[in-house]
Structure formats: structure tokens, C-alpha cells
Amino acid sequence: MTVHNATLIYGDGIGAEVIASAKKIIEETGVPINWEICEAGAEVFKKGLATGIPNETIESIKRTRIALKGPLSTPVGYGEKSANVTLRKLFETYANIRPIKEFPKVPSPYNGRGIDLVIVRENVEDLYAGIEYMQTPNAAQCLKLISRKGCDKIIKLAFEFVRSENRKTLHCASKANIMKLTEGMMKQRFEEIAKDYPEIDAQHIIIDNCAHQLVRFPEKFDTIVTTNMNGDIISDLASGLIGGLGFAPGANIGQDVAIFEAVHGSAPKYAGLNTINPTAVILSGVMMLRHMGEFEAANSIEQAIYVTLGIDKVSTRDVSGSQGVSTTAYTEAIMRNLGKTYVRTPTRQYKPIVLPRVAKLPVVKTRRVMGIDVFIESNLNPADLAAALNKICTQSLFNLKMICNRGTMVYPSLGILPDVGDLYRCRFILKDEESNLKDNQLIAFLGLLQPDFQWMHLEKLNVFEEKLAYTRAQGED
Ligand code: NAD
Fold this sequence. Notes:
Elements: E1 4-9, H1 15-28, E2 33-38, H2 42-46, H3 55-64, E3 66-69, H4 83-90, E4 95-101, E5 116-122, E6 132-136, E7 139-142, H5 148-164, E8 169-174, H6 182-193, E9 201-206, H7 207-216, E10 223-226, H8 228-239, E11 251-253, E12 258-260, H9 279-291, H10 295-310, H11 317-320, H12 327-336, E13 367-377, H13 382-393, E14 398-405, E15 408-411, E16 423-430, H14 439-449, E17 454-464, E18 467-468
Parallel strand pairs: 1-2, 1-3, 3-12, 5-10, 8-9, 8-10
Antiparallel strand pairs: 4-5, 4-11, 6-7, 11-12, 13-16, 13-17, 14-15, 14-16, 17-18
Helix pairs in contact: 1-9, 1-12, 5-6, 7-8, 9-10, 10-12
The protein binds nicotinamide-adenine-dinucleotide.
């Protein structure tokens, strides 16, 4: 029998109770696990460590490559960054997998609809890279970074996940209709990669429609892959469909490390009361057992939960109010039911998931820079700004192509002036459109702007293999 190694982090608030419950049940299945018990979270922050994660914890996860963790909180006044986000980034756990499955006798407006879906959320890129700037004292900007490699990893993992759980359909939910290059890359890579998985029904859906359909017909979804922020929002929405946070498990999967944790936080006001629902963490432990290849033990715990809720009608207070039993009594009920099955909710046939390898990134054969977007702080009206910039352009290599404000073109005028702010994006295209802008030419041009204008930000307008590598402004031809 293989002895598995795993790092165990109790975490903060209700963490101690829910992790203790999951550990007890896992141990009762007989799967041998050598737990390395480690610290992270509030107490660590309070000791003065700005990351909230001691080196011993990091070293333990590097060794075991598997962690089961309770929720971590960041106490007010200690550190700026969440220890959870730091862990995800440190170990590049690029996929966040959140199953949403209906539980017997757990009241929700969707009872009996047979919800059984999984959201596979990209976990490290997108707006959550947290790259933000004040461009002017009145305009803030956050960079939405999406890489081809990041898309390929999460999409391939989602297809492999569908295979491992013997599922049938994978939706890619994106906002590619508006953000054509970032969200569009996710959609385009999804459609390309889908060709390698012909047995899976691969469909694209726009994220807002996906949210709408999830509320109306959640039972129609099987698996959904999506970018970080979309995934954050729809996975919380989806956990609300099946009885709340007490029932929403999760896994953060990377190439080398997997960290299993419930979706919920430390719920401090319930800490130590022995009343909260440990199901989400127990099911995170079930996902961990499958990751270890311990399918029988995992299935046995899953079925014992169904029997406890569906036949014994034993549940915690979040489900049955004052009739609810304590966390420890619920845990013991599950332990007694190990080995029993709940026929109405059979367990799926699981296979080990194959972690994808991403092929080498393609190299473009031709590229040039045909112009620049310069973000300028100005309180001039668009016509006066354009007149001043056109004058500067006469002594330069550039023509002023357009000016826009918050994405809408204000020069040349479309006839209606939107309510403009003090940050303008001014697009300058080389007079010789086929030539390739050199950095020294660009710097010389900035020198011409500088006496009159405060520029904040610069973007090169690239052309890769004769395709424009930027989007047009709203209204630009
Ligand atoms: P929370 O998830 O801790 O609690 C919100 C509410 O949900 C609770 O008041 C409770 O009514 C209910 N709830 C949550 N878990 C439950 C359970 N197992 N059983 C029954 N009811 C449950 O969210 P919050 O109050 O916004 O956050 C508290 C702290 O947790 C914050 O410091 C936050 O940063 C942290 N947090 C950590 C994680 C994580 O570690 N992954 C995730 C979310 C929040």
C-alpha cells in the first residue's frame, strides 16, 4: 500500500473544525497518509511575516506536492496580499476546479433538477494579476493579461478533466465579442484545441449569457472553462444554486502542486462553535484522494455524505436550522455510513487526470511597428487637442489617426461628444505605413509632445504577419 504525503493547513476561523472533520473521515477510509501539519494565515501575519506563509510551509508543499488547507484570512493592518493568492501564484496552480452538484434533501430552489456541473477557472492571469495604475489623478487602469500559454494550459486541462470524469460537454465562457484579443484568445484557442478531443461536445458561450442560463437551466451545463474573473463570479453564483458555501469544494491544480480547499472563507463568527458545515472541505479532501489515485476511498466518502443527508436526514444548521446537528455529530454520521451507497446519486466513473503539456509557442515570421498610441492627460476639448497634436505632427514622421476617450472615438468627431475625462488615447500612425518604427524615432516624437503635453502611457501598434495586433476604437474605421 502506497503511503501518501500531504501538507495539512488548518487555517483560520472555522478552519480548525472543518479540516479536523475531513482528516478524521479520510483516516477512517484506511488510506495511509503521512500528514505534514503546517501553519499559514492570520497568526503568521501577526508574527510579522508579510506573506502569511512561513518557509517551512512552502518547503513542505514543495516536498509533498499536495496540500489540504482550511481558509486563510488577512487580519486588518497586516500585509496587503492575501496568503491564498500568494500560495496559488507561488506554486502556479493555474486551474481552479469547482464542482457544483445537487445534494439530496438539501433545500434550494433548484432541488430535483439534477445539477452536476464543474467550473474550471483560470487561476493566475487576467485582471487578477493585479497590475494597476492611476493614469491621471482621476483615471485608474488595470491590465488584463491573457497569454496563449495560459489559455492552452487551462483549456487542455479542462478537456482532460472532462475525459477523466467521463463527462460529455465542455463550454468555454468568454467575453470574446467585446475583448477580441484577450477573451478572444481564449475562444480561439478553445476552438483550435477542441479538434484534439472529437468525442467531447465543445461549445462557446458568451459569459453574460452563461450567467443567465446558469440561473435558468443549470442542469443543462456539464463543464465550463473560463478566464479568471469570469470564473470567480460564475463559480460563486453556481455554488448558490446547490445550498450554499457549506457545499462548495475546490481544487487548485498546477503542473507540480495541487492545493485542495473549500470555496468558503474562515467565517470567524462561527469559529469554535461546532456548528458549521464541513461538507465542502470533506469533498475537497475527496478531490485530493482522486488526485492521489485513491478512487475507492473517495467514492466511499462521497456516497457516505449522500446517505447521511438523503437517508439519515442528518445535516448541520445551515441546512436544517435548529434541527441541525453539530459539526462533530455530522462527521461521525458520515464515518458510520462509509461503505454504504445512495442509489439515487451514483458516483461517476473517474479516471486519473492527465496533466497537459503545452507545445512550444509559435514564432511570428514577420513583424513591424506601424505607429503608437500615446495616452495623454489633458483638459482640452477633443477638437482643440487634435488641432494642437496635428500641428506637432507636421514636423514628425506621424499622422494623427484618431483620439479616443474611454474607448470611444472623439476625433475625428462622430457628431456627438461623449462626457470626456482627462485621459485621452491618441493614435499616431507612421506616414509611411509600410515602414517599421524604430525606438529612437519614437523617443524623438515624445520629445516633440513633451513641452505641451503630459503623456502617461505608451503602446506600440504592432503588425504580426500582416495582421493588426491591436483593436480599433469604438467608431474608428
Ligand atoms: P465566509 O465564506 O467566511 O463566510 C460567509 C458566510 O457564509 C458565513 O457568515 C456563513 O454564514 C456562511 N458559511 C461559510 N462557510 C460555511 C460553512 N462551512 N458552513 C456553514 N456556513 C458557512 O466569507 P467572508 O465572511 O467574506 O470571509 C471571512 C474571511 O475568510 C475573510 O478574512 C476572507 O478574506 C477569508 N476568505 C478566505 C478564503 C480562502 O481561504 N480560500 C476564501 C474566502 C474568504
